[in-house]
Every structure is written in structure tokens, then in C-alpha cells.
Write a structure and sequence with these properties.
Helix content: 40-55%
Number of domains: 2
Strand content: 5-15%
CATH architecture of the largest domain: Up-down Bundle
CATH class of the largest domain: Mainly Alpha
Strand order of the largest sheet: 2-1-3-4
Radius of gyration: 16 Å
Largest sheet: 4 strands, mixed
Distance between the termini: 29 Å
Structural class: alpha+beta
Order of helices and strands: EHEHEEHHHHH
CATH topology of the largest domain: Glutathione S-transferase Yfyf (Class Pi), Chain A, domain 2
Shape: globular
């Protein structure tokens, strides 16, 4: 069974939570307390020398970085719907995985980290970056239901949490109607799970 090292308030961990749930993959959650610095212990650093979460252990396989974990889980447990194998489809998904780890992280995610976790960042720069990042997402989603292809892929799962958590960083989502509609489409999916600051379970 997969061991999933998870910090409850981490948007990066939430990407993995969502895919594990959507694919109905049996797993054991191992809580990691970031305030208690569990992620910097020798045991955790042996799993992930970067000292970050999420991490998964699948037998002898250890994967860290949320995007890499999404790729691994989708490839092993999903089908070509979530991660296509054709060159064009795979590249289009990869574009948005990179967007999640660069633009989304350096904008709304770091603004949230500053306000919730006292992360040492340039807040003005993060807020400016977030405006551009969310505007690009909104423009894309005004023309398409999903980010990469004509269906849900791991690109959507990668970009969703920190975009949807933007208001934790005092970033209004009101101007982004297409983005908000995309949030609702994701939150209505079978297996969707929530976390503080995100949409509630369907019917909840």
C-alpha cells in the first residue's frame, strides 16, 4: 500500500490527495507537521533531501514533488485520459504542470504562504505575479472547460489548489468568472476532496 506523507494545509499535498481519491487508490496517510518541523527530521530527509512534502512511498519507489507524484499515479493507476501518451497531449499537459510549479507557486501560493505561514517573500511582487497568473488561467478557461485538453487531466489537478486558495493570500477571485466556473467543475467531480479554504464536498 502507498504511504502518503501529507501536511493538511499544503496545497501541494492536496493535489496528491485529490488524485488518490479520484482514482480510488488505497493508501496510508502519514501526517507531517510543518510547524513541528517534521519535514526536516533525518527520517524525512532520507526520503526527500529537499525536506518538503508531499512524498509517497510505493514499495521501494519513493517519489517527491507533487507534479512528479501526479505523473506517477496517473501513469500507474489511471489511463490516458488523465495523462495522454501521444506527444502533443503529453506536452500540453506538461505545459500546465510547469505553470503550476512556476507561475502559480510564485504568485498566489507564495502570497498565501506569506500571510498564513509568515514566509519570507516579497509580497508586492507575489501579488503582482498572482494577478498575471490568474488572468492567464481565466483567459484560457474562458475558451476551454479544462486547461490542457478537452477533458480533465492532471494539469487541472496541479493548478487547482493554489489558484482556488488565492483568497487566503488576500487576492480577490471576483474578477475571474471563468476561473470560478472551473473551480466548480472540479469540485463536482467524483472523488473530489476538500481542505480548509476550498470548495466543499458536492452535496455538503
Amino acid at each position: 500500500m502507498i504511504k502518503f506523507y501529507d501536511a493538511p494545509m499544503s496545497g501541494n499535498c492536496h493535489k496528491v490527495r485529490m488524485l488518490l481519491s479520484m482514482l480510488e487508490i488505497p493508501h496510508e496517510v502519514v501526517p507531517v507537521s510543518l510547524p513541528n518541523m517534521d519535514h526536516k527530521t533525518p527520517a524525512h530527509l532520507a526520503r526527500n533531501p529537499l525536506g518538503t512534502v508531499p512524498v509517497i512511498e510505493d514499495g521501494d519507489v519513493v517519489i517527491y514533488d507533487s507534479q512528479a507524484i501526479l505523473v506517477y499515479l496517473a501513469k500507474k493507476h489511471g489511463d490516458e485520459q488523465l495523462l495522454p501518451i501521444d506527444p502533443e497531449g503529453m506536452a500540453l499537459v506538461q505545459q500546465w504542470l510547469s505553470y503550476a510549479v512556476n507561475e502559480v507557486w510564485n504568485g498566489p501560493a507564495l502570497a498565501r504562504a506569506f500571510l498564513l505561514f509568515d514566509r519570507d517573500v516579497d509580497l508586492a511582487r507575489c501579488l503582482a505575479a498572482a494577478k498575471t497568473t490568474l488572468s492567464i488561467l481565466d483567459a484560457r478557461l474562458s475558451q476551454h472547460d479544462w486547461l490542457a485538453l478537452d477533458r480533465l487531466t492532471i494539469a487541472d489537478i496541479a493548478c487547482y489548489p493554489y489558484a482556488a486558495l488565492a483568497e487566503d493570500g488576500k487576492i480577490s477571485l471576483a474578477p475571474y468568472s471563468a476561473l470560478q466556473a472551473w473551480f466548480k467543475r472540479i469540485e463536482a467531480l467524483p472523488g473530489y476532496v476538500t481542505m480548509p479554504g476550498l470548495g466543499q464536498q458536492p452535496g455538503g
